[in-house]
Amino acid sequence: MSKVYFASSRTKKWSYDDSMPGKLERLLKEIGMMNYFSPDEWVAVKTHFGSEGAHRIVRPVFLRKVVDALKRIGARPFVTDTVRIKGLDYLEVANQNGINHLSVGSPVVLADGLYGNDNLMVKAGEILGEIAIASVIYDVPAMVVCSHVKGHINSGYAGAIKNLAMGGVSGYHRTYGWKCGRGSMHTIGEGELVWDAEKCELCYQCRDVCPLDAIQFKDDELVWEDNVCWRCGRCERVCQSESLTLPGDSERFIRSLAEAARAVISTFEPNKIIYINFMAEIQPECDCMPAADVPVIQDIGILISEDIVSIEQASIDMLLGSLPLPGSLANDRDIKDGEDIIMKLHNKPYILQIEEAERLGLGLRKYELIEIK
After folding, report:
1. Per-residue pLDDT reduced to its tens digit, 2-35
2. What's the pLDDT tens digit per position in 106-122?
3. What local confidence, expressed as pLDDT, does residue 291 receive?
4. Out of 147-161, 179-193, 207-221, which region has the weakest mean confidence (pLDDT)?
5. 162: exposed, middle or buried (C-beta count within 10 Å: 0-12, 13-18, 19+)?
6. What percent of the chain has pLDDT over 70?
C-alpha cells in the first residue's frame, strides 16, 4: 500500500502556513525530496503550459515552490513540457500564462525541441507498439510531475497518467510521423479526417484551433493537409455542428494512456519520479483548448506521492465525494449531488486508465491517505 500525502484547499487561519503555497512546502518536506533526488542532478518539473485562452493551469507560484525545494537539496531543476502548438508560439503562451524563468526560478524548456520532433522511440506495448518519447524527458535522470486534475472530452478524467502520456510523448516523429506520436492514441487506422459539408456551419473553429494550420477553407470547402496533421483531434472536439469525424475508439484511447505513461516511466530508474496532483480550478476540459470553462467542482487540495496509480485513485475518490458547482457545465448537464460528476460530464469509462496502469505494474490502487494540516 502506497502513501499519498494530502493538503486541503481550505484556509482556516489568516497565515502563510495555512495557505496553499505554504501547505505545498510542507508536503514537499514530508515526502522528503532528498529521498529521490541528488545534489547536482538535473530534475525535470513536468507541467502543462496551457493555451492562449486556457489559463487554469498549475499556477507558477506552485511550480516555483517545487523548484525551490529541489534547489534546497542542491538539485538543478528546469520546467518543461512537450510542444503542443508551434514551439516558439508555445513558449510565448507559457510566458503569457506566467511561466517563465523569472516566475518559476529555473529555465523553461521544450522537451522535444522547437519543432516537436526531437524524440526517441521506446517500446510501449500491445496497443501502441513503439512511441516517440521527448528526448529531454528520455535523457533526464529524475522528474517531478505536476498535474492539473480536470475533466477531458476523450479520457473523461485527466491527471498524472494523461500528463505523462500526452505530455511526455511528441506529436510527431521525423521518420515515422504522427503514427508514433500522440496521434496514435487519439485515432485509429490511417486517421483520415472526414468532413460533412452539409452539416458544416462554416464557423471556422476547426481551422482556428488547429495547432499546425493543417485546416483551411477555400471557396467554402475544407482543405486538410494530411501530411502536416498530428491527429490531435482538437478540430473534431470544437466542431459544434458535428461535421468533422476523426476515427477513434474511446476505450482504446483510455487504455493507451496507461501504456504511453509506462513507456515514459520506463526511461527512468526506480524511485526517480514523484507526482503532485493539483485539484484546483477543476474545469471540464483539457488545458490545451483555446478557452477555460468555469470549474465544475470546488477546489479540493494538493496530493503528492511516489505512486502514480495511488495518487490517481486518491484524486478520483475525492472527486467522487464532491458536489457539482452551480453555473457550470455540471449544472447544464443536470448532475445531481452524489453522482459521478466526471463520468456524467463526458460519459467516458475514465477508470480504465487507472485499472490498466495497475495491471501494467505502475503502482497500486490501494493507498494510505495522510493529511497534512
Report:
1. 999 999 999 988 999 999 999 999 999 999 999 9
2. 999 999 999 999 999 99
3. 85
4. 179-193
5. buried
6. 100
Number of Cβ within 10 Å of residue 76's Cβ equals 15
Beta bridge partners of 157: 151
Of 52-56, 183-187, 323-327, which range is least confident? 183-187
In words, the CATH class of domain 189-245 is alpha beta
User: Domain map of the chain by residue range?
Assistant: 2-183+249-371, 189-245
Instruction: Give the 3-state DSSP-derived string for the chain, with helices as H, strands as E and coil as C.
Output: CEEEEEEECCCCCCCHHHCHHHHHHHHHHHHCHHHCCCCCCEEEEECCCCECCECCCCCHHHHHHHHHHHHHCCCEEEEEECCCCCHHHHHHHHHHCCCCHHHHCCCEEECCCCCCCCEEEEEEECCCEEEEEEHHHHHCCEEEEEEECEEECCCEEECHHHHHHHHCECCCECCCEHHHCCHHHHCCCCCCCEECCCCCCCCCHHHHHCCCCCEEEECCEEEECCCCCCCCCHHHHHCCCCCEECCCCHHHHHHHHHHHHHHHHCCCCCCCEEEEEEECCECCCCCCCCCCCCCCECCCEEEEECCHHHHHHHHHHHHHCCCECCCCHHHHCCCCCCCCHHHHHHCCCCHHHHHHHHHCCCCCCCEEEEECC
Asked whether 296 and 151 are in contact (CB, 8 A), the reply is: yes
Q: Note whether 2-183+249-371 and 189-245 share their fold.
A: no
pLDDT band for 293, please (50, 70, 90 cuts).
Answer: very high
Specify the fold of 2-183+249-371. Rossmann fold (3.40.50)
Instruction: Let me know: does 318 contact 367? Beta carbons within 8 Å.
Output: no
